[in-house]
Write a structure and sequence with these properties.
Length: about 130
């Protein structure tokens, strides 16, 4: 067993199907093996619970080491209760954008697109919900 395989096997922390995993490892060329070693830790960070990770054989067979795994933000920051949470910009229709520019030119103030809470409140007031 080579040291790169041992590194992958231990770092992946889901010890299932070692013989099948070795067979898949042997099918990889040196460049792919280096990519596995280089990317396994970021894959583990992006998928910390082993029960949601594919078995190591499938990780190799389906070339999951080529997946982009680094999230743009820490996962905690994606949850609204987290202090670093920044809500995504709402998608604005081209009509609203055109109208907003016209209002800004005319009155000097650009209208803001309503938040989800404001939309829900408006729906309730109008009797849609």
């Amino acid at each position: 067993m080579d040291k790169d395989f041992n590194y992958f096997w231990n770092a992946y922390r889901k010890k299932r199907g070692k013989q099948a995993t070795v067979k898949q490892w042997d099918k990889l060329d040196a460049i792919d093996r280096k990519m596995v070693v280089d990317n396994v830790s970021s894959f583990i960070k992006a998928n910390p619970d082993p029960k949601y990770r594919p078995d190591p054989e499938r990780y190799l067979k389906h070339r999951r080491f080529e997946d982009e795994t680094a999230p743009e933000k820490p996962l905690e920051a994606l949850h609204p209760s987290h202090e670093a949470y920044v809500p995504p910009e709402p998608e604005v229709s081209p009509e609203f954008d055109t109208w907003a520019r016209e209002m800004e030119d005319k009155f000097g103030v650009k209208p803001k697109y309503p938040t989800e809470e404001e939309l829900q409140k408006g729906r309730k007031e109008l009797g849609y919900d």
